[in-house]
Write a structure and sequence with these properties.
This protein is of the alpha+beta class and 312 residues long. The chain has 3 domains: 12-98, Rossmann fold, CATH 3.40.50; 106-123 and 187-296, D-amino Acid Aminotransferase, Chain A, domain 1; 127-185, ATP-grasp fold, A domain (Dna Ligase, domain 1). 34% of the residues lie in helices and 20% in strands. It is built from 11 helices and 13 strands. The strands form 3 sheets. Strands 8, 9, 10, 11, 12 and 13 form a 6-stranded antiparallel sheet that branches. It has a 4-stranded antiparallel sheet with strand order 4-7-5-6, with helices on both faces. It is globular, with a radius of gyration of 19 Å.
Length: 312
């Protein structure tokens, strides 16, 4: 499947000064540093004037000093992907790529995201929110399950629990990430992901990790994780999965670009896990892989994303 690109010819000067926001304070800081550096290098290669800004240190002062015409947010996790930075940029009158404040906040909050999907009939695994021990007994009835910090990404703090007696400890560990904990019914099967770029679904990727699931190690550190493109689904199944991904993405109000993750159970049914509104841009990241399969180089992908700064 070829991506229907809109930016074959562009004037790098038309973007003006671009601030590449990266780093920050979240548990995903290291991934963000890598994403930002690669985005900055791509923009530099194609002649766009840009500057890296680490949002951990006086982001307002840095933005005021640089006076960018737009911002490329390469931030992951809290403080960058949850609507906080988007709100700051809007207050300062700086256009930025990707989803807006509300959509970013909803997508980052796994619990409320799933509530919305559930309300409109989209398939997502059963779940319960555990806060300071509340609902723990109900959550125990769902084991085997995944335990996740409700407000983190990149599989930070995620654990698979197969025994009821292990659930409390897993919830306590996930709760150390300063927020509620989501307990989600375990779906035994393959994991798939769908990148989205400017209203188009990119080729589906099937993920095969060596461990129990696609955790932080498998995502960013392991060279043994396998990414299957083509994904092994029939053409009809792939199109159906892409359609669900677009619906789930748009239901949250997301725009520009992102990624939607799924599990497929043993009966072949697909279940929505989450939306990432600022996916990774590292060498191991999924959206660049899918874009390459659709005919976009990394540099071309970055330019396509940059063009979403004026789409809101």
């Amino acid at each position: 499947m070829q991506y229907n690109r809109s930016c074959d010819h562009f004037d790098p000067e038309a973007f003006g000064r671009v601030a590449v926001l990266y780093g920050g304070h979240s548990a995903e800081r290291e991934v963000s540093l890598t994403s930002g550096e690669r985005v900055h290098a791509a923009l530099t290669r194609v002649g766009v004037q840009c500057r890296l800004i680490d949002t951990r240190d006086d982001v307002v002062g840095q933005l005021q000093a640089y006076r960018p015409d737009c911002a490329f947010t390469a931030l992951h996790g809290r403080g960058g992907e949850d609507g906080t930075m988007q709100g700051l940029l809007e207050t300062m009158g700086i256009p930025y790529v990707g989803s807006g404040v509300m959509a970013s906040a909803l997508a980052m909050d796994k619990y409320r995201c799933k509530l919305l999907w559930q309300a409109i009939g989209l398939p997502t695994p059963e779940f319960v929110l555990v806060t300071e021990g509340d609902n723990l007994e109900l959550a125990e009835s769902m084991v085997p399950a995944f335990v996740k910090p409700a407000l983190e990404g990149s599989s930070v703090g995620v654990a698979r629990v197969d025994r009821r007696e292990d659930l409390a400890a897993a919830c306590e560990a996930a709760g150390k990430y300063n927020g509620p904990v989501l307990v989600e019914t375990f779906v035994d099967g393959a994991e798939f992901t769908v990148g989205i770029l400017k209203g188009q679904a990119l080729p589906v990727i099937k993920i095969e990790a060596d461990g129990e699931f696609y955790d932080y190690q498998a995502k960013y550190l392991s060279d043994n994780t396998r990414y299957c493109i083509p994904c092994g689904l029939s053409a009809t199944q792939e199109q159906e999965l892409q359609a669900v991904a677009l619906t789930a993405f748009e239901a949250l109000g997301c725009s520009g670009w992102g990624r939607v993750d799924f599990m497929q159970d043993r009966q072949g049914r697909f279940w929505l896990l989450e939306v990432n509104t600022i996916p990774g841009m590292t060498e191991h990241s999924l959206v660049p892989m899918a874009a390459a399969d659709a005919g976009l180089s990394f540099d071309e992908l970055v330019i396509e994303i940059l063009h979403t700064a004026d789409v809101r």
